[in-house]
Amino acid sequence: MAGKNYDSKDIVVLEGLDAVRLRPGMYIGTTGVKGFHHLLWEIVDNAIDEISNGYGDTIRITLNKDGSATVEDNGRGIPVDKHPTLHKSGVEVVYTTLHAGGKFNNANYKFSGGLHGVGASVTNALSSWCNVTVYKDKKEYFVGFHSYRDENGKMHSGVAKEPLKCVGKTDKQGTKVTFLPDKEMFGNITFNFENVCNRARELAFLNKGLKIVLQDERTGEGEIYHYEGGIADFVSYLVEGKNKLFAKPIYFHGQDKNFDLEVAFIYTDSYTENSFSFVNNIPTIEGGTHETGFKSAFTKVMNDWARSNNFLKEKESNLLGEDFREGITVVLNVKMNNVQFEGQTKTKLGNPEAKTLVESLTIKELSIILSDKKNSSVAEVIVSKAKGAAKVREAAKKAKELTRAKNSAENFNLVGKLAASTSKDREKSELFIVEGDSAGGSAKQGRDRRFQAILPLRGKPLNAEKKRIDQVLANEEIRTIISALNTGIGQDFDLSSLRYNKVIILSDADQDGAHIRAILLTFFFRYMRELINDGHVYIGLPPLYKVYKKDYTEYVYSDSELPQAIARAGRNYSLQRYKGLGEMNPDQLWETTMDPDKRNLIKVSIDDAAEAERLVTTLMGDDIEARKQYINQHANFDKEDEFYKNYSKVNTKTAVD
Ligand code: 28F
Description:
39% of the residues lie in helices and 21% in strands. By secondary structure, the protein is of the alpha+beta class. The chain is built from 23 helices and 25 strands. Residues 5-6, 10-11, 43, 46-47, 50, 71-73, 75-76, 78-79, 90, 94, 100-102, 175, 177 line the site of ligand 28F.
C-alpha cells in the first residue's frame, strides 16, 4: 500500500522503447499540439503520483528559452540503486523501459493513471535529449539520455549517455527532469503557456493542497496554482460571474477500499446542468458509471429530504433527477484502480463498481450534510429550484407536443426554407446553416445537391444562454434547426437519428457573423453537446479577399496571408474584399467555401470543458462587465475577430476536413 518503501527490484519490465517512435500515436495519441504537451504531462503525472502518496507538495514547471521544459518535485526522488537483474539504476529503468513502473504491477502506488500512465520513457523516447537529476539521501545524482542516429542512419531513442552517477552533495530532495521534444517527431510545435496554465490549474484543483509553480522563461510570465479547497474552489471558479443561489459550494469526501470520491457542487440561476467529472485526474468528458451513480444518489437523497421535511406532500410524486440538476454546477473527482475507459473518445468510465461505490458514498455523505440544520436553507433552495424546473418541464412537454404538431403542419413551410439533399446517405450528408437569405440562395444554387442541404437563417437565433428550454423552443430559427437535425435536444437528444454527418455553420467574417456563430455554438453546447463531442459540428471559412488579374485568381482566407498572395499575383493586381457571403455568386461560394476538395473547415471540439464553460458564460451570459474585461484582456486583434477567435481557441481546433 501507499507508504511502503521499495526499490528497483520492484520495477517490472514489459517492453523496449523502440516501438514509441515507430507508432507515436499508440502512446501519445497524436504528434500534434496535444501529443506534444502530453510529453510534459507524462512527467508531471509521475510527480503528482509521488505527491499524492504523501511525499512532497510542490511541482515546478518551467518552459525554457531553448524550447525544453523542466519539471521538478520535492518528493523522495526516483530510486537510484541498481536493479538486480537489469543491472542499471531505477532511474534508468524508469526512463528507458516502456511500462516500467510500480504502477503496473504492485501496490506501491495507491492509484495509477490507468490508460494515461504510459510513463516517462515515452517522453524520453520522443525527446532529442532528456536530463534527470535526483536529490536523495543528501546526494545529487544525474543521468542524461539522448536520441540519435548512428552512422548507418539507425535511430537510437532515449539512450543513457553514461550510467547514472552521483555528482555532488545536496540538502534537497526530489526529482528534476528537463527534456526537449524532438523536432523530427513534432516539427515546429512549441509549448503553449495558456494551454499549460489551464491543465496545471485543473490539476491543482483536483489535488487539494498541491502547489504548482509555473514559469515561462521565454516571456517572463508566471503563475502559481494552489487550492486548499480543492474541487470546492474549482466549483467557485466555474461559476464566477454567475448568480449563485447559496454562498459556498457543498463539499464532501468519501472513501472505500482503494476508492476515493470527492464531490463539490453549487447552484446558480442558470437553467442548465454543468457536470464535470474526473477519474485519476483525467477528465471523463463522456461521463460514465461514476456520474450515473452520483445522479441516482443525488436524486434519491434530495427526494428523501424533500419528503421528510414536508416539501413534498404524500400525494405528490417524486421530482426527477433532471429537475434537481437544473442550475447545478458539480465536480466529481474519483481516484480508483484498474480504470476502464469506453466510448467514442475513450473518455467514459466503464467500471460497474464505480456506480455502486459513488452511489453509496454519496448517499452516506450527502445525507449527513443535509441532516445538519445549518444546511437546511441550502436544501430548501435546491428543492424549490427543482420544483420550478418540474413545472416548466410539464409546460415544455406541452410546448414540445405543440411544436411537434406545429412542425408537421408547418412542414411545407420548413421544406420551403430547408433545401434538402437528394441522397439519403447519412455518412456523406452535410447541412449548411447559412447566415442570411441571399447567401442562402447562393448556397442553394452552388451546392452539390446530392449530399449538401442548405438551411438559411433569416434573423438571429435566440441566445440560448440564460434561457429556459421552453423559451428556446419558442424561437423559430432554433426550432427549424432542431427539426432539420432530427435529434431532439437536451435529455431527449438522440445522436442515432441525426440526419447529417456534418453540420456546418456558415456566416460572414464580421461581427454579426461572429455573433451568429457564437449563438449557434452556444445552443449546441447547451442542448446538443454530444453533437460537438462526437465531432459533427464545423465552421465553414469563407475567404476574406480575392486577389486577381486577367487570368489569375487567388482567394485569401486570412489577413496574414494577404501579403504573400499579393506578391504571388505580381504587379497590376486587383483586390476584392468580401464583406459577406452574399457578395459571392453561387460558383464562387461553391469553389471557395463549400467544395469538399477545396474548402477550409474548422472542426468544433471541446478540449477543455471547464474552460469552455467559463468562456460561454463570459461571452454569452449577462455579466456585461466580465465580457468587456475578457475582450479587453485579449485585445490583440480586432474586437470582433477576437470574440470569435477566443471562443474557438477553447472550443474548436482546426481539422483537415
Ligand atoms: C519531475 C518528475 O518523476 N517524481 C517521482 C518518485 C519516487 C519514487 C519512484 C518516482 C517504482 C517503479 C516507478 C522513491 N522512493 N517527478 C517524478 N518520484 N518514482 S517518480 O519510484 C519509482 C517507481 O517505477 C519512489 C521510494 N519509492 C518510490
